[in-house]
Amino acid sequence: MELTNMQGNRTALVTDDAIWQAIRDEATLQTVQEPTLASFFHTVVLNHPTLADALSFLLASKLASSTLGELAMRDLIQEAFSADPAIVNSCRRDLQAVVDRDPACRGYFVVILYFKGFQALQSYRVAHHYWSQGREALALFLQSRIAEEFAVDIHPAARIGAGILIDHATGVVIGETAVVEDNVSMLHEVTLGGTGKETGDRHPKVRRGVLIGAGAKILGNIEIGEGARVGAGSVVLHPVPAHCTVAGVPAHRITGLCSEEPAMDMDHTIPG
């Protein structure tokens, strides 16, 4: 089976359970190394037959509230996973992205349990599903709960690809008409926002393989070209060509070649 990604390319659906087996193996090891948390590890991971089942349980426990209880929330998440298999496929690719690119990551297991950038992104995927189905009130409710729980505010109408790393994640804001293509990496306090003066299509379009440093603000309906790099703390108000580095307030182009795949290299060094 194949899926079409955001660039219109056909990609293989990740159907093997290698990642899920790795998560279970890591969880089993942790029950031995830290028996105090064994019950927690069983409840969240080992008692579930699939990645989707475990993830729905975990996200429901995070997003439930007095308005929508844990069982009802889990039903909604599982319904989205069943209706759109691409959500769980994207989840696997996001998991792999974190393991590959984050030096603080010590396995798939810790990403599922503790990395709120990953958790917020998978929660957004559920909200986006319901937005796409015309259930906007529910999608906006989920957006609000995601913001409250994870300090990450992603509009459910935004379009986000797979293989995404949102590292640390606190303070990330992604607006309604933003597009983030596959294999993008960004750090905390990144804003993909509007200028405050525009209506309609008013948010950035971030092409595949882009690296966005901590605290960068990219504003307006502008394109950040494939494989570009945005320095930490920058304010970007104009389009950025592919495979270029920009930094500063306002951002300007930095002399020197950018890596072909900055999102993969995670090198935030700005050439002099």
Could you characterize the architecture of this molecule?
There is one protein chain. The chain is α/β, with parallel strands linked by helices and 272 residues long. The protein folds into two domains: 15-153, Orthogonal Bundle (serine acetyltransferase, domain 1); 158-267, UDP N-Acetylglucosamine Acyltransferase, domain 1. Helix content is 41%, strand content 14%. It has helices spanning 18-33, 38-46, 51-63, 70-83, 85-101, 108-114, 116-132, 136-150, 262-265; strands at residues 2-4, 10-12, 153-154, 159-160, 165-166, 173-174, 179-180, 185-186, 191-193, 205-206, 211-212, 217-219, 223-224, 229-230, 235-236, 245-247, 252-253. The strands form four sheets. A six-stranded mixed β-sheet has the order 5-8-11-14-16-17. Strands 3-6-9-12-15 form a five-stranded parallel β-sheet. Strands 4-7-10-13 form a four-stranded parallel β-sheet, with no helix packed on it. Mean pLDDT is 92; it is low at 1-15.
Annotation keywords:
272 residues; alpha/beta; serine acetyltransferase, domain 1; UDP N-Acetylglucosamine Acyltransferase, domain 1; 6-stranded mixed beta sheet; 5-stranded parallel beta sheet; 9 helices
Give the secondary structure arrangement, pairings included.
Blueprint lengths: L1 E3 L5 E3 L5 H16 L4 H9 L4 H13 L6 H14 L1 H17 L6 H7 L1 H17 L3 H15 L2 E2 L4 E2 L4 E2 L6 E2 L4 E2 L4 E2 L4 E3 L11 E2 L4 E2 L4 E3 L3 E2 L4 E2 L4 E2 L8 E3 L4 E2 L8 H4 L7
Short summary:
The protein has 272 residues and is an alpha/beta fold. It folds into two domains: 15-153, serine acetyltransferase, domain 1 (Orthogonal Bundle), CATH 1.10.3130.10; 158-267, UDP N-Acetylglucosamine Acyltransferase, domain 1 (3 Solenoid). It has nine helices and 17 strands.
